[in-house]
Amino acid sequence: MINRDTQLCMSLASRPGNFGTRFHNYLYEKLGLNYIYKAFTTQDIAAAVQGVRALGIRGCAISMRSKRAACRFSTLSTLLQR
Predict the structure, then answer these.
(1) Per-residue pLDDT for the chain (82 aa), expressed as one digit of tens each?
(2) Which class for 42: exposed (0-12), middle (13-18), buried (19 or more C-beta within 10 A)?
(3) Which domain holds residue 57?
(4) Which of 50, 67, 68, 71 is catalytic?
(5) Whether 38 is catalytic
(6) Is position 28 within any domain?
(7) Number of domains in the chain
């Protein structure tokens, strides 16, 4: 059930489809996780990455087409830096 504590996971895809969204949401439900997955498309990857950070989005997958551009705007997590 979606409520105020539901965490958003998302993808930035050049051509978002329904399969990944349905698959993620099915697994979240089966695992009892209070998450929802939604796919988005954007022409402004810098603004999208900034929005992901600003909104505290739990996780964001990025399609291959946009990964290189997104890397310019991302930082390594402290876990990955070790």
Answers:
(1) 899 999 999 999 888 888 999 999 999 999 999 999 999 999 998 899 889 989 989 988 888 877 777 777 766 555 555 5
(2) middle
(3) 7-81
(4) 67
(5) no
(6) yes
(7) 1
